[in-house]
Amino acid sequence: MNPALELHDVSKRFGATHVLRGVDLHVAQGERHALIGPNGAGKSTLFDLISGRVRPDGGRIVAQGVDITGRSPPRVARRLARSFQTTSVFGGLSVLDNLRCAALGAAGSRLIDRWWPSRQVEDRARAMLDAIGLANRADEPAARLAYAEQRALDLGIALATDAPLILLDEPTAGMNRAEAARALALIRAITEGRTLLVIEHDMDAVFGLADRISVLVRGRVIATGTPAEIRVHADVQAAYLGGVIP
Fold first, then answer.
1. Does domain 5-84+165-175+195-239 have CATH number 1.10.1740.10?
2. Which among 130, 75, 125, 127 is positioned nearest to 102, based on CA atoms?
3. DSSP calls for 4-26
4. Each residue of 150-177: pLDDT tens digit?
5. What's the pLDDT tens digit per position in 210-232?
């Protein structure tokens, strides 16, 4: 079986600044893989390259056995879905309509007038609505949701696309500890059996969620391993300056 995601010697620079320097990364099918590292390490840029928002200067990106290097976001979207650090919901649409939009894309239709007759779209949207715990807010504009609820809707939108690979960029950013704990429980439950690559600064979240962790420092992956292996890795400890992983 092909890995869900492979990066081979991927590099990116902006002007004179080398942001990524020969990144190699392998994410197995069905794995929850975390990408951590200090601020400015290049984590979000790496997500931009994978999702097609930015073209790499070198290297190859392969998703589900298909080379997607430099492909546009619409062409990449069938193979992966991404959430961002800030919420990206359609505030003027209802919660359910946000999910219908995502499910419509998964159904492969470009005709909006096929939205309502499609039982496939409706079933997927409503199933995700239940999964993210927002069934009682279905008809409310997404803009009225609390921040943590909008983040849950972001996750639902990504999953409703039915993409086999999910990229989550700091899904608990801006949440208090209780909200973050609920968000992680939700992610753990509804990504079961899916492949997940997540950027996260909350180390408790990372070590509680990930099967494997890769550490990006100054544009290079310096270590990949299980949470137990990463916690005691000397280079990783040095990168976090305190000698001990937070």
1. no
2. 125
3. SEEEEEEEEEETTEEEEEEEEEE
4. 988 988 888 888 888 999 988 888 888 8
5. 999 999 999 999 999 999 999 88
